[in-house]
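To whoever is on call:

I kicked off a structure prediction for a single chain this morning and the downstream step that reads the tokens threw a length-mismatch warning. I double-checked the sequence; it's 87 residues and nothing unusual in it as far as I can see. Pasting both halves so you can look.
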Amino acid sequence: MYLAKHVGRWSTSRIGRYDHGRDHSTVCHAINKVERLKATDPKVCALVESLAAKVAESSIRTEGGIHKRALVGLPSLSGRPDWIDER
């Protein structure tokens, strides 16, 4: 959820719909929890930043080239990203 919000720039409502119809407040809680963990645990921070970079890199490749948003590290994700498995 954190990566979908901060890398994919998905809305909390969209993330909730994707994750089995969860409410946006549940998504906000999950995102805030990751942010708190990042602030208090350097290992979590490093892991999340590493995952975010890999997701951003992957979505740039799958979109067929670099575009303006990708240059600032914020690629747009249309549809479901390849790294999320179907449930």
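Update from on-call: the warning came from a stale cache, not from the record. Cleared it. Sanity check on the structure: The chain has one domain: 2-71.
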